[in-house]
Amino acid sequence: MTFPEGFLWGAATASYQIEGAVREDGRGECIWSRFSHTSGKVLNGDTGDVACDHYHLYRSDVVLMARIGLRAYRFSIAWPRVLPFGTGAPNEVGLDFYDRLVDELLAVNIRPFVTLYHWDLPQALQDRGGWDNPEVVQWFGEYTDRVSRRLGDRVKDWITLNEPWVVAFLGNWLGIHAPGLCDLGTAYRVLHHQLLAHGAAIAILRRNVQDVSAGITIDLGYFEPATERSEDVQAAWREDGFKNRWLLDAVFKGHYPTDVINWVAEWLDGIDLDAVAQAAAPLDFLGINYYTRTLVEAASSGVTAARPVKPANAAFTTMGWEVYPEGLYQLLVRVHREYQPRALFVTENGAAFADVLTPDGKVHDEARRDYLRQHFDAAERAIQAGVPLRGYFVWSLMDNFEWSLGYTQRFGIVYVDYATQQRIVKDSGQWYAEVIRQNQILA
Ligand code: IFM
User: Fold this and answer.
1) CB distance 424 to ligand 1 below 6 Å
2) Which domains does the chain have, with CATH numbers?
């Protein structure tokens, strides 16, 4: 169970989920500040105002990462820290923060992976339509240009977008994420514009960053039919088209899948589908976020005419997600076979459990350790099968703001006591440190 030499073991976070300091040093308001301060949108009225206070504690957080032995750290830039109103005059003080963070990381040999967009769109842009406004391609380009010109001499690994599907559908169709809209046509336009913005950003990164390695992170679902009945098999395929192929085909083939276009046509009005060819700029890598599988059966209504079925005898995380490592193996092998990305990273994988800080001052999170062990094993099998998997980022470095679920879900390998901001490396984190040190999966 030894991993290839140089395999990049890492951990991931995102700006709004950990930074806090939302009104400091000229940062502008983002859609998640607005959404979380709107009554009833986030569990317990939680917000990212303080979160893990990483904006102030980043130095000691990097020390912690070095103690764990991380080889790479994936974090995102808060667009409104850099451009408080989304476009126009940059906020140099905001950029300085990321500048210092990058320097701290490099000083301890941790390779920074920067995600440009992990959901904190400037509210000023949302007020102009946000991702639904075609001008967003230009806005995102301007932002990408600013950040990459500032950090590109030291940061070589860039991810344009995190989980564009979630941004589009949870934020604009289901309304459970910012900006909280409920319209499927809007969701499709938002997704389309993100893909165009991604393509444009790749070109900018190539221009600004010498020796760049640029990619995108897509959350892939693993869908299996609940039975062998052909209607369930077709339902699972539709879910796959809705969630996976729509993005993978766009990014790797420059077009949307025809079968899906046919049954979502009524929501695609006004979208120039051919323009998605611009999203297929060659990539250096694809980032995959994987958490669970969904068992599917046919239904008589709903966009995909399918519904999830709860598997029997399965283990679940506190998110209600089934623990299903085989899905990671299957997805890695399939993406490699069908889309041939130059390289792959697992840019997120991890689990939320009800962690308890025990009187011995520790967090004994065997369930998370088991979850990670099984998923590392799936990754290793994929590498053996020829998949060019180059690294693995555990979600998450530390417990943080889990969007509409607030602080109720703990995903970290580091426990955060939100009252004191004390960090405690969980047992899973100690174990991960040893996995990294030995570059192999340990019992
Ligand atoms: O916390 C999120 C992250 O921001 C995006 N991917 C899924 C994680 C767990 O829900």
Assistant:
1) no
2) 8-438 (3.20.20.80)
